[in-house]
């Protein structure tokens, strides 16, 4: 009996000993995991800091030099989306007349980033520095406003493209909503607050069938998520104008085209396919009606952007507080003469001297609208905007650029 008691005690003791050992081991493992995780976090934040493509004395010097004004009464502009189509043209035009320009671009791969890099190189030969960063990066924006007292922001960074919104809806929310709010937050806190000019879109007119489109027409029936995010942008900027006294000008661009353009757009991809002997898909509207766009040449758009910057009254707030009412303006920037898509193709065929292989299909329900047509009387009155390039002339310039940029290979463009 005594012996068995003894045995039981020993077993209990062993059991207790092994439980406490297990407990100790468990504690040890938890501690080990915790220290490993915090070490990882430290390494991550460290490497983020080290690999950040911005910051440092040299970088700040580049930022300052690029934003330096070189003419009397000049302005200093932060151009977001500067490596983009419209952004690169506006940046060059501003720099050429002696304004300070600093570019910001995230170089995303929505379309071939090498074209964006090439635009960046072009800008750098004209002493425009483009910072690689995202408008969602609040710290970077705060730093930029810390280094330079920008008088204006030309906000062109966006997720563009009407039909791609069905493939990647989140990218529209990221750039056109979240990015816009982050930028406006930075602008509202900046001292002095800059005046903001930004790119809305003709697509906000959505299912409107009253033509031509006027700024006062309804814009509450967008046909694509892209259009909805641009419309939301107009309302978000209104809020910042109302609460913080930011001076806002929204520009509704109508299908902008030209040299250094966007490869995802029809005139560009048609050119590539025609030269490569590949078929092109031409969408057709309901009842076999051709689709039409108020195609607008890039130089006209640049003039409209610069006139918007020049006529924008100052923001009134400071230290994040409104000091008085500031202007809120919206303008159509179009060409005022819509052209059908089949006519666009015919003009390209003439300039390229190659016949297109047209594949005509009914317009899929992917966010497209049947036609656009701008009434630009507001822009004419207040900005002196007057488009001067017709589609025939503008496409000739585009084709010339396309062939010089991508080159010929026995009649076929190399890209
Ligand atoms: O005006 C605007 O606000 C918009 O203009 C363009 O959008 P979109 O007019 O759709 O321009 P494209 O993609 O170049 O299309 C032009 C026309 O060609 C048609 N198309 C497009 C692609 C294609 O393969 N086939 C085709 O027939 C489209 O249906 C449309 O009627 C831009 O892509 C948008 O970023 C911009 O906001």
TrEMBL record:
Bilayer-spanning residue ranges: 12-37
Cross-referenced SUPFAM superfamilies: NAD(P)-binding Rossmann-fold domains
Keyword Transcription: no
InterPro entries: Epimerase_deHydtase, NAD(P)-bd_dom_sf
Keywords: Isomerase, Membrane, NAD, Transmembrane, Transmembrane helix
GO CC field: Golgi cisterna membrane
Domain NAD-dependent epimerase/dehydratase as annotated: residue spans: 77-313
UniProt keyword Cell wall biogenesis/degradation, yes or no: no
GO MF terms, alphabetically ordered: UDP-glucuronate 4-epimerase activity
Pfam families, sorted: Epimerase
Gene3D superfamilies tied to this protein: NAD(P)-binding Rossmann-like Domain (3.40.50.720)
Main location: Golgi
Membrane topology per record: Multi-pass membrane protein
Subcellular locations according to the entry: Golgi apparatus, Golgi stack membrane
Catalytic activity: UDP-alpha-D-glucuronate = UDP-alpha-D-galacturonate
Residues in coiled coil: none
Domain of life: Eukaryota
EC number: 5.1.3.6
Family: Belongs to the NAD(P)-dependent epimerase/dehydratase family.
Subunit annotation: Homodimer.
Full protein name: UDP-glucuronate 4-epimerase
Species, as recorded: Flemingia macrophylla
